[in-house]
Write a structure and sequence with these properties.
The structure holds two protein chains of two kinds. Chain A has helices at about 30-35, 90-95, 120-130; strands spanning about 10, 15-20, 25-30, 40-45, 50, 55-65, 65-70, 75-80, 105. Chain A is α+β, with helices and mostly antiparallel strands. Chain A is globular, with a radius of gyration of 14 Å. Chain B is α/β, with parallel strands linked by helices. Chain B contains eleven helices and 17 strands. Chain B has helices at about 10-15, 35-50, 65-75, 90-110, 120-135, 150-160, 210-215, 305-310, 320-360, 385-390, 420-435, and strands at about 55, 110-115, 140-145, 165-170, 175, 175-180, 195, 220-225, 245-250, 265-270, 285-290, 295-300, 365, 375-380, 395, 400, 410-415. In chain B, strands 2-10-9-8-7-3-4 form a seven-stranded mixed sheet, with helices on both faces. A four-stranded antiparallel sheet of chain B has the order 13-14-17-16. Chain B has a two-stranded parallel ribbon with strand order 1-15. In chain B, strand 11 (about 285-290) and strand 12 (about 295-300) form a beta hairpin. The radius of gyration of chain B is 24 Å and the shape is globular. The chains are: A alpha+beta, B alpha/beta. The interface between A and B is small, with 11 and 8 residues.
Chain lengths: ~130, ~450
């Protein structure tokens, strides 16, 4: 059973988002996603300052046998990236919700966050996938 | 069978192809022949070639290939044109590729080689695509390419890159080399990469350090294109300038592959570790199994299209299996000292040929720049007639540059590899003396 913290928002594609005090959102992949991928060997983070619209492939998580895109959950501009992942991609496996964050985004329109799932809804989403 | 699949005649099977795209007749193809008849036809055609003395290089070189190379390469265990698909079941094949990659990294002075590409020209085009993907300093889709680079490479790259909206900008020629004084004129243009071929197509040695440092200062990557045989003597691309080239590529034919009418050859590609995820093609890595025994495996496969689909680094999922194997065997047999000896002999023979020919009135060196094993000679009359007269005497006297470099006037590119003896060079000089109207 994977961990689903209550204080985060989630997407269908297994990204999580945390709204920060300065209005930015931090993005990573869920515990479920990191388990499904297996041990990560490489994370390609987006470029600082790059702009994405919702649904753009903006980062890549790569395990030995697979590479998956991380889709931009909300439109915005990249304001920070997790440089530590360059040398330690396995942080995503060990700490998907803290040290393994991938990038931070300044959203164009924060109200779209209301459309994302809370922990309970994401839990139901995962349960439905397992059926 | 037509009745079985419910079609009236064979022509109906081709209905999908518009009539204007169809070859209406195949008249050039003669009637079917038996095996014995084909064998006889081929022998006749081969004899018609004669056994000319070949002094043409221009991208494909007449080196001696030890008999053992193809004797080993065509053993049943190796004899496949293809990359392994049940890869890890073919440990021997993977080991050969791993050794091949290791040899190429040693020759080029860079970190990681792939398992080989189609040929030198397409390897260069792939290097340009890779540079555009890998350059984090700018988003440029321009590559600065010297006019001194092989016209074939430039033409193939232009054909492949045009569809990706990548533009090749030409760096002009000065005295047979890239004109570093012309760099100022393009200093305000962003380039994803600067390509440098060394030795150049015209045989000259480029100012690789100056060009590499300029490119890096501009935020461009450096693609080093090099004849791998020359790398046995010259500074490897990984050591050009302060930081070295980022990608090296080129034609592998000089390392154990016969000329054989133009192919199959293979391309090689090597790069720095930092940009390896942008490199196309297969890569074999060494690892250990669960019990700690060494073994070989395909690695970084997540770049490839069977996993990454439309976002794959390239659509190349194979390599030139057999010729790369032969080349690995060639390099193993020659060793580093053997390669250096061949490269030195090529240089010495071409110098001897150039000296002998330039002693004749009407022939002179076109450029003062130092060369590896090819040089441009200026003639006082059209090259085509001179080459035809030499050919009539069994000598392939060089490559006529008139079509590719009209600005050079009557000029030929000559090459004398290690296969040419002193007597061969005298034969050429004597024939040339006859043509140029002097007693040798």
């Amino acid at each position: 059973m994977s961990e689903i913290p209550d204080n985060l928002l989630y997407t269908d594609d297994h990204e999580w988002l945390r709204l920060e005090d300065d209005g930015s959102v931090t993005v990573g992949i869920s515990d479920h996603a990191q388990q499904a991928l297996g041990e990560l060997v490489f994370v390609e983070v987006p470029e600082l300052g790059a702009s994405f619209t919702e649904g753009d492939a903006c980062a890549v998580v790569e395990s030995v046998k697979a590479a998956s895109d991380i889709y931009c959950p909300v439109a915005g501009t990249v304001s920070a990236v997790n440089e530590a992942l360059a040398d330690e991609p396995e942080l995503v496996n060990g700490s998907p919700y803290e040290d393994g964050w991938v990038f931070r985004l300044q959203p164009e329109d924060a109200t779209v966050l209301d459309d994302l799932m809370d922990a309970e809804a994401y839990g139901r989403h995962l349960a439905a996938l397992e059926d | 069978m037509l009745a079985g699949i419910g079609v009236d005649n064979i022509a109906d099977l081709f209905d999908e192809i518009p009539s204007n795209l169809r070859a209406e007749g195949l008249d050039a193809i003669g009637p079917a022949l038996s095996e014995a008849e084909i064998a006889r036809l081929m022998q006749t055609r081969a004899r018609a070639d004669g056994e000319p003395l070949c002094f043409i290089g221009a991208g494909a070189y007449d080196h001696y290939v030890p008999a053992a190379v193809w004797d080993i390469a065509t053993r049943g265990e190796f004899y496949s044109a293809y990359t392994p698909y049940q890869a890890e079941a073919s440990q021997g094949t993977l080991q050969v590729i791993y050794e091949f990659q290791t040899m190429l990294t040693s020759l080029t002075g860079l970190d990681v080689a792939n398992a080989s590409l189609y040929d030198g020209a397409t390897a260069f085009a792939e290097a340009c695509l890779m540079a555009v993907r890998a350059n984090r300093n700018n988003k440029s889709r321009r590559i600065l390419v010297p006019r001194a680079m092989s016209p074939v490479y430039r033409s193939v790259a232009r054909a492949i890159l045009a569809g990706q909206k990548i533009e090749l900008v030409e760096l002009p020629l000065q005295d047979g080399c890239s004109d570093s004084a012309a760099l100022g004129a393009v200093a305000d243009t962003e380039f994803a990469a600067v390509a440098i071929q060394n030795p150049s197509f015209l045989g000259t040695l480029e100012q690789v350090d100056v060009l590499t440092d300029w490119a890096h200062a501009q935020g461009a990557l450096v693609i080093g294109v090099a004849n791998p045989m020359a790398l046995a003597l010259l500074k490897p691309p990984g050591q050009w300038g302060a930081d070295g080239a980022d990608i090296a590529c080129g034609e592998g034919q000089p390392l154990g592959i016969p000329l054989s009418s133009g192919g199959p050859y293979y391309g090689y590609m090597v790069c720095r570790q930092a940009i390896v995820r942008q490199m196309p093609g297969r890569i074999v890595g060494r690892t250990v199994d669960l019990e700690g025994n060494p073994g070989f495996t395909l690695t970084l496969q997540a770049r490839e299209q069977h996993i990454r689909r439309s976002r794959a680094t390239s659509n190349i999922c194979t390599n030139q299996g057999l010729v790369a194997t032969a080349s690995t065997i060639y390099m193993s047999l020659m060793g580093a000292a053997g390669l250096r000896r061949v490269a030195s002999d090529c240089n010495a023979n071409t110098r001897a040929l150039v000296d002998a020919l330039c002693a004749l009135p009407g022939i002179s060196r076109a450029f003062p720049a130092p060369f590896f094993h090819e040089a441009v000679l200026q003639l006082d009359r059209p090259a085509a007639g001179v080459l035809a007269a030499l050919s009539a005497q069994g000598i392939l006297g060089g490559y006529d540059l008139a079509a590719d470099y009209p600005e050079l006037g009557n000029a030929i590119l000559v090459c004398a590899t290690e296969t040419k003896s002193a007597a061969d060079i005298v034969s050429y000089a004597t024939a040339a003396a006859g043509i140029f109207g002097v007693a040798a």
